[in-house]
Specification:
The chain is of the alpha/beta class. The protein has 2 domains: 15-260, Type I PLP-dependent aspartate aminotransferase-like (Major domain) (Aspartate Aminotransferase, domain 2), CATH 3.40.640; 261-373, Aspartate Aminotransferase, domain 1. It is 37% helix and 15% strand. The protein has helices spanning 15-27, 37-57, 71-82, 97-106, 152-162, 244-260, 262-280, 310-321, 333-339, 357-373, and strands at 2-3, 65-68, 88-92, 109-113, 134-140, 165-169, 186-190, 202-206, 286-289, 300-305, 323-324, 326-328, 346-350. The protein has a 7-stranded mixed beta sheet with strand order 2-8-7-6-5-3-4, with helices on both faces. Helix 4 links the parallel strand 3 (88-92) and strand 4 (109-113). Helix 1 (15-27) packs antiparallel against helix 6 (244-260) and helix 7 runs parallel beside helix 10 (357-373).
Length: 376
């Protein structure tokens, strides 16, 4: 099997990740619930995971990292905990449903930044969407469909000037390209993609003080006689038993990135992306989506072959060549509407540090053969 579905989940991970999960299942108690050895071990390793994540993003206080089950849960907790019906919120047409659907549920006044013909967010139009009632800007750092990176510097500067809280979805970028704490106010991430962690891990990084409404509450292991959950970080988001097993595995994935170096990882992944892109870009009938004029992007390429629905193209890649990809809408409905691919979808390949150059060349050969066959 050749695995090119890393933007969905990185199946190939540093071996110490699986070892850590197995070890934690045997040795960890319920974190935060007592003082005996297995609990203290769990507490210690969970805190070390906060430290590794803080190191990766350049955060001073590891306790500003809260763990959740996924980026989806993180975005729901943050958006649901801040945005109100009377607020105006700006987002973009490049968002995943994990951003869009929580925003729709708030009933807020919602505006959308558009994009150009390559799917790049039109950041220069941001000022036009700001109203006196605008309180939040929620956007993806990197598109899971095109691999384009959102140009954040100007957006965050304007948000600071206008007292708008910037919430950044770093699901696709954290661990893949440099992400720094000065890029936004609140970050939502997942553990099982670029961070090489297990599924069922994710988190929220808060850069400052915010008065979140409690949207998930219950036992927290402390202050049990208080009627309401603490709003302090990380307690505000960490009710219930933490996924200590997964978080320990996540620690090993993030440690691997910190030790290897994010630049080293990105350089290798971009080399493979360029090789694949150059191998298929001139093929008859192939349409590629996204901006490939810069290295400041994700190792993602989405494309179609004329006459083939994306589902059929992905099936051929899998059954004829053993290549795992992702077909369909990728939970990015507004971007598909922009590209007029609602009916066909797209096939997405996403490369990882653990892929090999030879695999990329096999992928190019496979696409060439399918493109030559066309819809016959």
């Amino acid at each position: 099997m050749i695995y090119f579905d890393n933007s969905a989940t990185t199946m190939q991970k540093p071996p110490e990740v699986a070892k850590a999960v197995a070890d934690a299942i045997i040795r960890f108690g319920n974190p935060g619930r007592s003082f005996h050895g297995p609990v203290q071990l769990a507490n210690s390793e969970i805190y070390k995971t906060r430290v590794e994540i803080a190191k990766l993003i350049g955060l001073d206080d590891p306790l500003s990292v809260a763990f959740t089950s996924s980026a989806t849960e993180s975005l729901n907790l943050v958006i649901g905990g801040l945005a109100q019906r009377e607020d105006s919120v700006i987002t973009t047409v490049a968002e995943h449903n994990s951003v869009l659907r929580p925003l729709y549920l708030t009933g807020c006044d919602l505006s959308f930044l558009g994009c150009d013909d390559k799917g790049c967010i039109e950041v220069d139009s941001f000022d036009n969407f700001i109203k006196p009632s605008t309180k939040y800007f929620v956007c993806t750092h990197g598109s899971n469909l095109t691999g384009n990176i959102t140009k954040l510097k100007k957006l965050h500067k304007i948000c600071k000037e206008k007292n708008i809280t910037m919430i950044l979805d770093i699901s696709q970028t954290f661990g893949v390209i440099p992400v720094s704490i000065d890029m936004a106010d609140i970050f939502c991430f997942t553990g099982h993609k670029g961070l090489f962690g297990p599924q069922g891990t994710g988190g929220i990084i808060v850069n400052g003080k915010y008065d979140f409404n409690i949207t998930k509450t219950g036992g927290a292991g402390v202050n049990s006689f208080n009627m309401f959950q603490s709003k302090d970080m990380p307690d505000v988001f960490e009710t219930g038993t933490q996924n200590g097993h997964g978080i320990y595995g996540l620690q090993k994935g993030v440690s691997f990135i910190n030790e290897t170096g994010i630049e080293t990882i990105h350089k290798k992944e971009m080399r493979m992306l360029k090789s694949f892109y150059n191998g298929i870009k001139n093929l008859k009938g192939v349409t590629i989506y996204g901006d490939f004029s810069t290295d400041d992007r994700l190792p993602i390429i989405s494309f179609n072959i004329a006459g083939l629905p994306s589902s059929e193209l992905a099936e051929r890649l899998w059954f004829d060549f053993g290549i795992a990809t992702r077909a369909g809408s990728h939970c990015a409905p507004l971007l598909h509407k922009h590209f007029s691919t609602i009916d066909t979808g797209m096939v997405r390949l996403s490369f990882s540090y653990f892929n090999k150059d030879a695999e990329v060349q096999e992928g190019v050969v496979a696409v060439k053969k399918i493109a030559m066959q066309g819809d016959g």
